[in-house]
């Protein structure tokens, strides 16, 4: 399962790292270390909870969640670069949900925010999940915003 989940884990770790970079005040070297630590923590955490034949199975276990409590995996990776939970809460949205499933990585900022897809790949056997309308618009905003960071980060700013 290790190689199978590489893209999904890399996408999730890169997204959280981009949120931290956008908040500012953390050096590139620290951000790189954070990203690698988070990828390793996710790989280890998901090892026996990755089911490509039934992608939704184990979804709750693989969900990365910040909701007035720091996700332990994000907290662990941040600790490796000397960031406290308090500092993380200042840098990241106060409510963030990130779903890391086989063939799809998506997120939601706030409890009532739209679900935006970061990565999507067709499932083997031709089973494709039909994205919600709001997902498509989020995905387009994300794609357009990629080339100009300030624009995409303004879209994701959440005040706590």
Question: What layout of secondary structure does this protein have?
Answer:
Blueprint: H1 6-23, H2 28-46, H3 59-62, E1 64-67, H4 72-80, H5 85-91, E2 95-101, E3 104-109, E4 116-120, H6 133-145, H7 149-156
Antiparallel strand pairs: 1-2, 2-3, 3-4
Helix pairs in contact: 1-2, 2-4, 6-7
Judged by helices, strands and strand pairing, the structural class is: alpha+beta
What oligomeric arrangement do these chains adopt? single chain
Just give the CATH class.
Alpha Beta
The share of residues in extended strands comes to 5-15%
The chain-level mean pLDDT equals: 81
Shape assignment: globular
Question: Per CATH, which architecture?
Answer: Alpha-Beta Complex
The percent of residues in helical segments reads 40-55%
End-to-end gap = 37 Å
Order of helices and strands: HHHEHHEEEHH
CATH topology: Actin, Chain A, domain 4
Low-pLDDT runs: 128-160
Query: CATH homologous superfamily - what is it?
Result: Anti-proliferative protein, N-terminal domain
Give the total of domains. 1
Determine the number of helices (DSSP H or I, runs of at least 4 residues): 7
* Strand line-up of the largest beta sheet: 1-2-3-4
